[in-house]
Design goal:
14 strands; alpha/beta; 326 residues; globular; 37% helix; Rossmann fold; six-stranded parallel sheet; Dihydrodipicolinate Reductase, domain 2; 10 helices; 22% strand; DHDPR_bac; oxidoreductase; 2 domains
């Protein structure tokens, strides 16, 4: 008889014992995060009016952070002022969007904000486009602007190398959702302890995102890295089945109201004779889990900027380990 086992059951036990994440959600504070000396933390959320950047900006307001009065938008988008509104707290903030094609204006704005708000009290969030990842990071480093890189894609190895060489403060991760990050950490631990445990198994991966997502899921790539250590399959990123079509997404299980913002992933390991199958799924509708994780990463990084004398590149595991997620 064919036995079907779910890798998710194993991971559930790992996550239950994990010290990374508390199972109970802490109430969100309505008080702005203060740095030493009582200064507020200001966040330049780049990529608005895109939905992920806007959701991150709303989460910042919700978690007691303040938005800078200007932010960077796409090079082909006209300069305009938008109002970011958080429906949970009723907080709002007006932000002028400056195209990336106007670097001098952006530099002058950043310098002015730092002078007004404090050199160490201004940070950035990047939810722009995969093609802009590396140049944007260099722009932040050049302007001494600590950042959280939520945008996936780009040359990730170069991105990290550049920021480490510059000794720049940054949080760089393929996924900002805390439960998903904890799952990835459990998988990495499993792969390290038991490499080749699934030798002879065939690996498959299918992921669905909104059709506006330009690149392959960074989370899928990270999970595949661990699963290929567990198996001896020659599976590569190019073998990931990407779904960017509404009809196909619905067939994959995505609800119609989540088509504009979702992340559905299924990973399958099947034995050579087909008698055993392990399957892992993580499905997210909406953007809230990523937006709030991003805001938490900013708060974590803001504390590091204040307490550390030298910049460093962090990831979401570091954020989890210090209990910096609400």
């Amino acid at each position: 008889m064919r036995s079907a086992l779910r890798l998710s059951s194993i991971l559930a036990l790992l996550l239950e014992a994990s010290a990374f994440v508390s199972q109970s959600r802490q109430p969100t504070s309505d008080v702005s995060l203060k740095m030493a000396g009582g200064d507020d933390v200001y966040v330049m959320v780049n990529g608005m009016p895109g939905p992920m950047a806007t959701a991150a900006a709303e989460a910042c307001l919700r978690k007691g952070l303040k938005l800078t009065p200007v932010a960077m938008t796409g090079p082909d988008i006209q300069s305009s002022t938008i109002t970011v509104y958080d429906s949970v707290t009723g907080k709002s903030s007006d932000v002028k969007l400056i195209p990336a094609s106007e670097p001098d204006e952006l530099k002058a704005s950043i310098a002015g904000i730092k002078e007004s708000c404090g050199e160490k009290n201004v940070l950035a969030i990047d939810y722009t486009h995969p093609s802009a990842v590396n140049n944007n990071a260099l722009f932040y480093a050049g302007n001494k602007l600590p950042f959280v890189m939520g945008t996936t894609g780009g040359d990730r190895e170069k991105l990290i190398d550049d920021m480490q060489s510059a000794k720049h403060f940054a949080v760089i991760a393929p996924n900002m959702g805390k439960q998903i990050v904890a799952m990835q950490a459990a998988l990495e631990d499993l792969a390290t302890k038991y490499p080749g445990a699934f030798a002879g198994y065939k690996l498959e991966c299918k992921e669905s995102h909104q059709k506006t997502k330009a690149d392959t899921s960074g989370t899928a790539k990270a999970v595949i890295d661990s699963l290929t250590q567990l198996s001896d399959d020659s599976f590569t990123y190019d073998d990931i089945e990407m779904v960017r079509d509404d009809k196909e997404s619905i067939e994959f299980g995505v609800s119609e109201d989540a088509l504009k913002g979702h992340a559905f992933h299924t990973y399958t390991l099947t034995s050579s004779d087909g008698s055993v199958q392990f399957q892992l799924k993580h499905n997210v509708s909406g953007r809230t889990v990523y937006a709030e994780g991003t805001a938490d990463a900013v708060k974590f990084l803001a504390k590091k900027v204040q307490s550390e004398s030298e910049g460093k590149v962090y990831n979401m595991i570091n954020v989890l380990e210090e209990g910096s997620l609400e």
